[in-house]
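Input record (Table S2, row 496):
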Amino acid sequence: MAFVESQDPNQLHFLVIPMGSPGHYIPTIDMAKLLAQHGVRVTIVTTPVNALRFGSILDQAIESGLPICLLVFTFPYNQFGLPEGCESIDDLPYVGLASALMQAYGSLREQVEEYIEKLNPKPDCILADTFLLWPGETAKKFQIPRILFDGMNCFTQMCNHVLYLSKVYESVGEFESFVLPGLPDRIELTRSQLPFAFNPRLKGMSGFNEKLRVSESEAFGVVINSFEESEQGYVDEYQKVKGGKVWCIGPLSLCHKDESEKVQRGNKSSINKHECLKWLDSQENDSVIYACLGSISRVEPAQLIELALALESSQRPFIWVVRAGHKTEKIEKWIDENGFEQRTKDRALVIRGWAPQLLILSHAAIGGFLTHCGWNSTLEGVCAGVPLVTWPQFQEQFYNEKLVIEVLRIGVSVGSQETVFWAFDEKSEVFIKREAFIKAIEMVMEEGKEGEERRKRAKELSKMASKAIEEGGSSHRNMTRLIEDIKNQARSKNLS
Ligand code: UDP
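Output record (uridine-5'-diphosphate complex):
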């Protein structure tokens, strides 16, 4: 991997600061590649394990001459009681260490500022993860415009915005449904489905939320991993809120065309690429259900077993990605002792650990995606042109479900009613019963009129997504606009 920095003082220079969660790190790395493809020099602030895990996907791009450099800083594991090598939320041995991890990220500030101090000229832009607060202070100190990235779409930003303004959620019961006011579509949710900022169960976070709001209001703008055609009304509204400083430049995952890149995105895959492709090649087009719940969901084993039995009952071919954080051992024990794999071996592929999701989703055999509605997965499903079975867990995932089902009309819900947030809940309850999974899977995979129309809409949306990042497409234009906006900032700074 190239760690050496190229130097061309005339080239626009972005300092990119990602955060240690796959759902944030992966798209940030993709964004760095896209920026470099648009001629921007990019330096990514990273740490030893993250550099290898998330950064190695850039090797090919760097070798081909793209101006990307990884700046690897030491990570203070010991100082914060983290196990050696633990730099990402999904690697935490237990969830109680999450705040230690955030503090360790906070401590990178000093090293980054020392680096900027020595640079002449200074970077033209700091593109930082929203959940890191210190880059705001650093940007102010060096008078560099700061752009935020939180991995969410404009639909989510607008849902949050109208909730903050209206406080409508305060006057309803936890499971009482209410309409989010002032949105382009009629969107109904319950308080029990809202992200932590509005969720009565997670009041302890209110101090952090307030700091986030201040930090967001001080930033120059926001980059969004989506494309305008998928959420036009919400993009327009969010542009108004942010004074035009919103740039939708996605879908970011489409920057990887090569199989070899797709297979190593986010982590070393737990399954051999050839084995995976051989299995997929042996299945009929549009026939396989792919079930994966992202990188950090820690669904209770009892609930995962319910899902597994539903997949088995569906009688369709499926891929099931098994991961339950510190509870993985329990679920693997069940798989081994119950004979599940043996019973389903003719039509199932069980992946224990990290799946090459992009590779899988881009195969013609995939006919439906059962997802937890993390935004990256949702958008990757959109790009693949497959209908979705939606099973949101926490954070903004219930918003994403609404976008998929009510606005884009490319999915069917399993009927989840409340957030299950692993850092706080230790419930062994089964919230979603086998029958609910089976019903949603059948609806998504059915060949009747409704199913066909849903599939057709998904395929059309996928075409729009591909066009958006090509030259002349909306996201391509927005990337050019972002670069121009930063150039203008740099010019006006030089004049003052
Ligand atoms: N992912 C993957 N293989 C896995 C699990 C996740 O490649 O086995 C990737 C997935 O493609 C997506 C990211 O990890 O890009 C997860 O982000 P998302 O926003 O969907 O969910 P989160 O993990 O943040 O809940």
